[in-house]
Amino acid sequence: MPIRRYVSLVMGVVTACLLIGSVLVSYGVIRPNFLQLETDEALRDNVRAVNAVSGELDQLQTLVDDWAVWDASYRFMSGRDASDYVASNLTPQAFRILEVDFIVFLAGGGNVVWSGGLDPLSGEMIVGAGDEIRAIHRAICPPTDKCMPARGSGLVDLSGRVAFVATAPVLTSLGRGPANGMIAFARTLNEPKARGIAARAQVQARVLPLPPQAAAAEGPRPPNGAGPTDVEKRSGMTRVRSLLAGLTASQAFHVVTESPRRISALGDRIAASALVASIGVLVVVGAVATWLIESRVVTPAHRLARKVSAARGERSSLPDPDVNEFNLIDTEFDRTLSALRESEKKMIELNYYAGMAEMFSGMAHNLRNTLMPMSLNVWRLRGLVARHDRGAGTGTDADAGSREADRREVESTLDLLEAQIMDVDQTLQDHHVFSRYGRHLIPTCVGSVVEDAVKVFMG
Q1: Cα–Cα distance measured from residue 346 to residue 239, given in angstroms and rounded to the nearest whole number
Q2: Residue 151 pLDDT exceeds 80
Q3: CA angle, 107 as apex, 158 and 252 as ends, to 5°?
Q4: Extended beta strands in 300-442, E state
Q5: Most CB atoms within 10 A, among 169, 170, 322, 434?
């Protein structure tokens, strides 16, 4: 595979992996964290709504406690000053000040002593039993239980309407008994009251009664406390439902809060922005990396491969498009190194032969220098021999002296020839000893040779 195609494939795989990683981080880490943050915020909103409902019950409990430990209420439940108590305290104005809709006075056995409420339409006092009063009475004194004076508060279902109900035993102003019955205050959850709860909770909230079958299916619940919560994410809203126990075990309510999904929308925008930013960074970094690799690696490698192809004597200077340039260069370098090793061996042979030639030239020169005096001495000997032959028959004393002188000269010349012959022998011996040491190798750095070859190719 050509290096350009290989680099493109690697860059594509790396970019795809980084892109997948960016998607996983954006939508697998960032967005779920924002969703969890939104869920936690919705749960806190629901807790505030439950606390607002509980605060409403606590306020109503405080009011009924004040009326229950009042001597006038104690005397009223004993049958004394009944008309004055009703005329002075159980008036429409008192209902409006207390912000209650129903008041019920129950005797020790659960019998209703007095009950009344305000008409929600006309605002007039309605005294006596009605559907709401009966529902409150059943919630306070279930038919299956003994109706004993007790203090408590909770929610009551008034045929689809939700009412806050609080009860307290009637005692003297000093809080002493025995209890003389009990008082119950009821406040319906109307629209203004629901808006007040939503304002305190800072979230849109509703309190919905559960049907008896659904309330029984929910199982045991903490008294006057929130039970399990259910989170439901809808389009644009997060809905949270908390189970709230009623005043009686047979009733239960849902505190429902709905919060706009602003946090998840923000998380989606941040995740999308992070993904777009990651893609932009990947594009820029990939373009820069591709340019650097192309200009610093691919193009020089392709250029070198072309020169290698041209140096190999191929018809086209362009390498095969299916051949990797680095593989081609590696192969050519291996071949070049092998050729360099062969050339090194040949150069060693040539150096050896050149040394031998130089050695023979020196030997011939030395022999010539030695043979020149020898030829002169031979010439002298020939002259002496010729002179001896000319004077051999005279037999005079002078001739005898001349022959003696010639004899000595011959001996001297022979000594010189012997010395010169020994010089020739020594010269031959020295050259023979020198030649026996074998070939002298010249150390060569292959790396420098390769660098020189690369410079030649790149030049």
Answers
A1: 92
A2: yes
A3: 25
A4: none
A5: 170
